[in-house]
Give the backbone structure.
Amino acid sequence: PDDRDTSGRVRDMESPRHDEISAERLDDPVQRKKLKAAMKKVGDWVRSTIKLATTRPAEAEILLDEMNPYFSKPSAGESIPDPTERNDDPERPKVTPGKLPPMPLIGRGSQGSSGSSGGKKKSKSKGGKTSGGRAGGGRGAVGGRGGKYVPYNDLRNSTSGQGKRRRIALTPLETARATIEVAAVGVSSDESLTIRSVNNRPCAGSPKIELNQGVRTTIDVEFDTPYSGPISVVLTTAAGNGNAD
């Protein structure tokens, strides 16, 4: 501090560990207010000194034409049009009223939020060719086995066995003997997880489970490789027969 009185009281404001200075340690409210103002001036001076020592003035101005589509033109008050974008002014967004898209059915499948159950087999694009009543809208990655999608509610899951085991709980909305598929949810697509056992019973290919409408069902799944991230679950029955293998 630039005044002798404040400088003489620095030790009184210092913490026992000598790593902090605060006027709040003084009992006299008048002195406390005075020294707080003085220490504030010190802080302002420090910041100003750092700014002067580190800030460099601009040496030149460069016109970046490639940025024109993203900013309005200040002088004319109008935006520079972007031929590739209809709404070319971020300060004046255009809102077109319309019908809201229909909400997807709960769960995954040919009519749900994932197209995973719509396909017959995996494809190079990970989408799968549909064989159900309609194409699976969404990120369908595992391709599915075709057939009828079994909807469900209240999906919950927990991980154990260092990611190799997953307990899945859900409430089916239909009674069926269904194939269960589990996929790792990714940013752009889902990846099918290989299931080694269901409810402690070894399985190969497409494991089947029994579902009763409205009855809470718990399924213990063991994967071939550890995975602890988010999952999607697809339940399907064979095409043309809701209870067939």
In short: Residues 105-144, 240-245 have pLDDT under 50 and may be disordered. Residues 29-54 form the longest helix (26 residues).
